[in-house]
From TrEMBL:
Region entry Disordered, spans: 228-258
Protein family (similarity comment): Belongs to the short-chain dehydrogenases/reductases (SDR) family.
Source species: Streptomyces lonegramiae
Descriptive protein name: SDR family NAD(P)-dependent oxidoreductase
SUPFAM superfamilies: NAD(P)-binding Rossmann-fold domains
Domain of life: Bacteria
Any one Pfam family match given in the protein's UniProt record, by short name: adh_short
Gene3D superfamilies linked to this entry: NAD(P)-binding Rossmann-like Domain (3.40.50.720)
Alphabetic keyword roster: Oxidoreductase
Length: 258
């Protein structure tokens, strides 16, 4: 029987390359995104290398928690799941809120993958040995001090909000790995490094993502960003693909693939 993999934000950037890597390894892959045309092209690309069942695309806005719940219901109804790659992530230059009224960085980088994972645990247990791969980022080093509110105080800066949400998700990943010890579900945090994608060429080219005191130095800061995100999406997807496939002796130990 085909082993099934779900890749969120799998129609472009690092997520699409992850889906391609998993399909080439024999997984029946479902990718999630908002745009049907991008979804269709992604499925074509995945099927060109896939050796298992046809790839599928599901239209979901992962910023909406009710759509995340619907996605989990659909995936669960299809039966056992072997791999969940929570690849969705986004950075915004201006503060915005989701349809649920939640600050969007926190919703997309943490709440959405958290909720999806919790709702899919029965399907992942049924697919054991199975894996959860949460895509993290070097930006987890940015926030300092104690985080005890969903939103940062004292002004919105995209990079900081992003790093904060990714850090919350990394803490969740470590906790989940402990919680699932012995359940047959391995949990990984995968750091893609940096790649040229919609995120890095879009929002990350606006000086508004950094704090006002840094903006006078924007040309230098931007150059540094470009240098650290100059890889290809395929190279960046490697950490997720390896985490999803790697045989592990220490099941459910938190690890970071690089
Ligand atoms: N690129 C980097 O250098 C870098 C570095 C460190 C970590 N990361 C992490 O790696 C992951 C992938 O990043 P990326 O750079 O590949 O991002 P990206 O290029 O912006 O991702 C594009 C994908 O995300 C989907 N997407 C965006 N918003 C969505 C939403 N609300 N609901 C559903 N799908 C959505 C897009 O599909 P639609 O537009 O059709 O919805 C598309 O499939 C993220 O978690 C990111 O934080 C990236």
């Amino acid at each position: 029987m085909n082993r099934r993999a779900l890749v969120t934000a799998g129609t472009g950037g690092i997520g699409l390359e992850t889906a391609v890597g998993l399909a080439a390894a024999g997984y029946a892959v479902t990718v999630v995104g908002r745009d049907a045309a991008r979804g269709g092209s992604a499925v074509e690309r995945i099927n060109a290398v896939g050796t298992a069942a046809e790839a599928r695309f599901v239209t979901v806005d992962l910023a909406s928690l009710s759509e995340v719940r619907d996605l989990a219901d659909r995936v669960t109804a299809d039966g056992a799941l072997s791999v969940l790659v929570n690849n969705v992530g986004a950075m915004f230059d201006d503060r915005r809120v989701t349809p649920d009224g939640i600050e969007a960085s926190f919703a997309l980088n943490h709440l959405s993958p958290y909720l999806l994972t919790e709702l899919l645990l029965p399907a992942l247990r049924a697919g054991a040995p199975s894996r959860v791969v949460n895509v993290t980022s070097g930006s987890v080093r940015i926030p300092t001090g104690r985080i005890d509110t969903a939103e940062q105080q004292g002004g919105y800066y995209g990079l900081h909000a992003y790093g904060r949400a990714k850090l919350a998700n990394l803490a969740y990943t470590l906790d989940l790995a402990q919680r699932l010890k012995g359940d047959g579900i391995s949990v990984f945090a995968a750091d893609p490094g940096g790649a040229v994608t919609t995120m890095t060429t879009g929002t990350m080219s606006s000086s508004r993502v950094v704090a006002p005191w840094l903006r006078p130095f924007w040309p230098l800061v931007h150059k540094a960003f470009q240098r650290t995100t100059s890889g290809t999406p395929a190279q960046a997807a490697r950490s997720s693909v390896v985490s999803a496939r790697r045989p592990t002796s220490a099941r459910s130990s938190p690890s970071t693939a690089d």
